[in-house]
Amino acid sequence: MAKTAKKETPLMQQYNSIKVKYPGALLLFRVGDFYETFGSDAVKAAEILGIVLTKRGNGSASETALAGFPHHSLETYLPKLVRAGQRVAICDQLEDPKSVKTIVKRGVTELVTPGVSYNDNIVQQKSNNYLASLFFEKSNVGVAFLDISTGEFLVAQGNPDYIDKLLQGFKPSEVIFPKRSSNDVKTNFGDRFYTFSLDDWPYTGDYAEETLLKHFEVNSLKGFGIDRMPFGITAAGVALHYLNETEHRNLQHISHIARIEEERYMWLDRFTIRNLELLGSSNEQAITLVDVLDNTSSPMGARLLKRWMVMPLKDKAPIEERLNVVDYLLRNEDLREHLIQEIKQIGDLERLISKIGLQKANPRELIQLKRALTSIAKLKELTSNVDSSALKMISEQLNPCELIIERLDKELQQEPPVLLIKGNVIADGVDEELDRLRKVAFGGKDYLLEIQRRESELTGIPSLKISFNNVFGYYLEVTNAHKDKVPSDWVRKQTLVNAERYITNELKTYEEQILGAEDKIQGIENRLYNELLVSLLAYIKPVQLNAGLVAQLDVLLNFASIARQQHYVKPLINEGRVLDIKGGRHPVIEKTLPVGEEYITNDVLLDSEKQQIIIVTGPNMAGKSALLRQTGLIVLMAQMGCFVPAKQATIGLVDKIFTRVGASDNLSSGESTFMVEMNETASILNNISDRSLILLDEIGRGTSTYDGISIAWAIAEYLHNHPAAKAKTLFATHYHELNELTNTFNRVKNFNVSVKEINNKVIFLRKLVPGGSEHSFGIHVAKMAGMPPKLVMRANDILKRLEQERTGGEHIKDSIKKIQKQAYQLQMFSIDDPILVKIRDMLNNLDVNALTPVEALMKLDEIQRLLKN
Question: CA angle 607-612-613, nearest 5°?
Fold first, then answer.
């Protein structure tokens, strides 16, 4: 018997025709007051949102899974779906169901993806929400970063390593690329990002460039400085194409595109960003540099701070300009506090003007725009007469846009609702018809009382009253005693026992007015509000400029406040090649110290002539890694324009910071610790320059001792003898053999992080002192970590034996074989039992060849008595 074909309802036919246009997206389908999901979408939605999964057409051939939620809960449920990695297509009713007799017309009004969202509940307030677009062409990669929530649009191109560094710094929420490049993406950038592949056609021909030209309404991209970046242009054009594909077409706030100028910024590869823990850490509980340095007063400032952190400057003039503003703000406390208070009133102006560009701003947000611009006027006034050229420049560029303030003040209610549909958004006096309708709709009682009083006087019926019912609306009621006084033009509608009810033309006209007034009011308010929104589009560029200037001012004020609180000093920046830090501290570690404990400061001097490479030895836990990291962070903070945690810092400009700190296994992709270490080190050695700062920690520990020493030695030698680049290097190692390098290479110097040994206990002094360290104290660290005493004692025995054998010139393998044999002989004894230790020592001291039988029996008796006791 043939299967009965599923018979689809008109609604499901409409659903399926829309669903097929958005493959891979979860479709929220508006039905009446609910958003519904069907089939596999319903199963996903129910699981992610924790809502009930039901069935439609239960038991029938057309049975399908169903899950939904009220339409007004979209703001609650949509973020959960997107954060779960879902692409969500929102399908709305495009016409009023009351106005049609057939099925209501529906269509997707927005496709929300992790990288294409401006919803406050989805995007993080202090972070950008970048969509990254990639285009591969042989060994070149073009990339564009676009944040629809702020309007930022940036372009770059280069080799995969450079693009990888940018991806690590910008941390996009979504990465798009052509389907044919799937393997390239995985090979070069792994699977760290949420990705979506597109058909190849938008990447072909001039389509991408034409998309950009059309959007910016220009004939050439020269004015943006990106005309010589063909791969970046393709990536950028496809990013705009993707926004159109996701139903985002009001994009006036994306008003500018700029190239990322590689030559302006310090090189920080992805290993350095990770190893220095600038923005995040593999340890969830860890405090990062951004946690310590971010005390900004606006979300815009917080986002800019992150950008400055991963893109420090390498030109002296702009760095000094930032440092001078920080210095000025630090010295003028009253001004600083007043500026901070005003910036706190501004809020997220950048995202607010973007919502206006998208035509999605609500009434409450327009009132916030008015407040923000009012505060900008005060900022302009406060900075207009300062003794700082950079601050004056910011002041001159700030534009309070007084016309917007006046218009918003005049046209909007002072406390409007969030939703336009709630009404009472437009102020009185803006539109005569709106004012009249409001009087009709909301002043109805007074009008009816006026009609009742007038008709009572005209007819002489004192008991006349006006009432309303659902059958025939407003009516006049007259008792039987006065019915002979009723005028002839009144129409009788109902007879009661004691009275009669009439209607008049005036009452019918008023009834029609009052019943239609609310709908008309809503229509007029919608029209006026949308006209206001459209008129604000003309101010997008000046408001975006304001937002950028406020963000800069916010970050610089933040640097001044932190410098004061944390006792940071102004670094001296010069064009030389000397790095001289006196009394340096680690900005993160010093914040985590127990109350009352002071951070042990250290001096670091590196230059190209006498002390290019410092070999740092010392026990584990003594602070070698902290010293390396703090040096990198101090240089980075200085070139961001921030004061630094030190007593004094002179910094010859650094163009690249490389780090190789700690083991970072990548076993999930089949790479060993050692392979990862070698990849990272190779990346450093292949990219060094004369102004590089290199921080190497425990190179070679992922392989055998001799291999490790050989590799570490060869790396130090390579860095010292490099013909073109005398890169400043801090090299922390547990291989004490590297101390010998200083005897051969004149720019290699030995230092150690000192410790004190008192009563067989180790005290870490965490102070860097000249000279190499001969002892690692690893066993002491094991003891401090809580290793079993038996294990610690055995480790000490092995260490002593190895040191004896080594001084005797014996090969380490022979020493280990002897120790293994000794361990086998002694394993019958519990080494931490004092009686057994005594017996062992007694047996070791016996001269068996000189022992008589009687003496042997006496010794056995003595051992037996020891055991019995």
Answer: 145
- Is CATH 1.10.1420.10 the right assignment for the domain spanning 302-355+364-459+505-566? yes
Predicted confidence (pLDDT) per residue in 78-101, tens digit: 999 998 889 999 999 888 777 777
Q: Where are the alpha helices (DSSP H) in 601-759?
A: 624-640, 673-685, 705-721, 741-744
Angstrom distance (rounded) from CA 693 to CA 604 = 12
Asked whether the beta carbons of 328 and 391 are under 8 A apart, the reply is yes
DSSP designation for 674: H
For residue 652, the cross-strand partners are 574
| pLDDT for the residue numbered 669 | 44
Tell me the mean pLDDT in the region 673-700. Answer: 80
One-letter-per-residue 3-state SS of 241-280: HHHHHCCCCCCCCCCCCEECCHHHECEECHHHHHHCCCCC
Dihedral over alpha carbons 291, 297, 298, 304 (to 10 degrees): -50
User: Cα(821)–Cα(746) distance, rounded to whole angstroms?
Assistant: 45
Strand partners of residue 89? 27, 111
Residue 798's nearest CA partner among 772, 775, 821 is: 821
Give, as one character, the DSSP assignment of residue 666: B
Residue type, 757: E
Domain range summary for the chain, segments of one domain joined by + = 10-112, 131-260, 302-355+364-459+505-566, 572-783, 793-868
More confident residue, 448 or 343: 343
By the 8 A CB rule, do 413 and 517 touch?
no
At 212 the pLDDT is 95
* 131-260 and 302-355+364-459+505-566: identical CATH topology: no
167 vs 179: CA distance, rounded Å:
19
Please measure the distance between the N-terminal and C-terminal CA atoms of the chain and give it in whole angstroms: 93
Task: State in words which class domain 10-112 has.
Answer: alpha beta
Distance of CA 137 to the CA centre of its chain: 29
Instruction: Report how many helices (DSSP H) and strands (DSSP E) the chain contains, helices first.
Output: 30, 27
Q: Report yes or no: 734 and 701 within 8 Å, Cβ to Cβ.
A: yes
Cβ atoms 489, 508 nearer than 8 A = no
The Cα 619–Cα 542 span in angstroms is 58
Neighbours of 202 (CB within 10 A): 22
Amino acid in the structure at residue 197: S
Q: How many CB atoms lie within 10 A of CB 557?
A: 24
How many beta carbons lie within 10 A of that of residue 323, not counting itself?
Answer: 22
* Residue 814 pLDDT > 70: no
Q: What contacts 34, CB < 8 A, 6 or more positions away?
A: 68, 69, 70, 71
Give 572-783's CATH code, choosing from 3.40.50.10210, 3.40.50.1820, 3.30.300.20, 3.40.50.300: 3.40.50.300
At CB < 8 A and 24+ separation, what contacts does 469-474 make?
Answer: 472/503, 473/503, 473/507, 473/508, 473/511, 474/448, 474/503, 474/507, 474/508, 474/510, 474/511
Whether residue 321 has pLDDT greater than 50: yes
The CATH label, of 3.40.50.2300, 2.40.10.120, 3.40.220.10, 3.30.420.110, for the domain at 131-260 is: 3.30.420.110
CB under 8 Å to 508, separation ≥6 — which residues? 473, 474
Q: Are 25 and 112 within 8 A, CB to CB?
A: no
Position 38 pLDDT exceeds 60: yes
Which residue is listed with tokens 């060994």?
139
Q: pTM surpassing 0.90?
A: no
Q: Does pLDDT of 2 surpass 50?
A: no
pLDDT tens digits, residue range 346-404? Answer: 999 999 999 999 898 999 999 999 999 999 999 999 999 888 999 999 999 999 999 99
Residue 4 DSSP label: P
Question: Which range among 94-108, 465-479, 579-593, 693-707 has the greatest average pLDDT?
Answer: 579-593
Contacts of 66 (CB under 8 A, 6+ apart): 36, 37, 38, 42, 53, 54, 55, 56
Half-sphere exposure of 740 toward its Cβ, with a 13 Å CA cutoff? 8
